[in-house]
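Minutes, project check-in
Item: structure for the 316-residue chain
Input as provided by the requester:
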Amino acid sequence: MDISDLKLIATRSKSMREIGVALLLAVAVLTLFLFIPLKSKTQTTPSPIVLKNVHVPNAFASVPIEAKAAIVYDLTTGATLYKKNANAQLPLASLTKLLTVYAALSEFSPKTLITIPPEVLGMSAPRAFTPGEVFTLSNLARLTLTASLNDGAASIAKATAERKGDTTRAMLASAAAGLNLTQTYAINGSGLDLNSAISGGYGSAHDVAILSGALIKKAPKIAAATTKDSAVASSVQGISFTVKNTDPVVGTIPHLLLSKTGYTDLAGGNLALVFDVGIGHPIAVIVLGSSRKARFTDGQALVAATFAHFAGVTSL
């Protein structure tokens, strides 16, 4: 092998080394492209935009309410959407009947038989029954709540108190305590004034909202009867009763779940409404201490404001 051959071999070796280095560099660059993501303008995550001083419409700001106390209470979230003296203890009048029926359903099944006792004779109107008539608790409660029947409420209260071995007052106090209704107590089952100074039942708008929601959960069919213009039910003896709803505006409240009126000289005009603003989203509107007529316009105004609130506007 001469010198020219050695030079040729050396030249080839140098070329092979250069080729090898080039290949290694190419592999390194390819690895960077494959395994290290490149940032581009399309991949950049924008920073969150924080909106300051966003105005949220207050649908309740200009609602005129004559009532001494009122509340709009979200029974799903526990939020108070509107309040006016919501914890003030005021006469409940016939809203007391909600507590009476709830207490009875806590002791009896809806099919339990309730007899109208002699003591109901001579009770103040509205009343509809004759002593000795027998009803299932469900039928008697539907008639009683829809037409605000004082004799029906007294009969339910008497049967429940006897079952518990308590006085009516103690029985109703126990039911209120079970729901943590701290401003609520009742002396009788109807809510009728005992005299010109003492009401048959007291409570706050907040308490009545909680009570109304609890009654709907316990007996939705009984509550639903109060949303119709009238209720029909029969006694065990086969006598059919048709009673008119004491709330004339039930047909104007969308998705109504419960309605109950109350009025006495001491209480003024009271109203309890529960309605859905969405599937399974009940809202309670309670009005206490309004006038006989204004309780309904108060209630309607608060219902309309509630729907506006959930629509995100000041009014509909």
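Outcome recorded: The first helix runs from residue 3 to 35.
No further action items on this chain.
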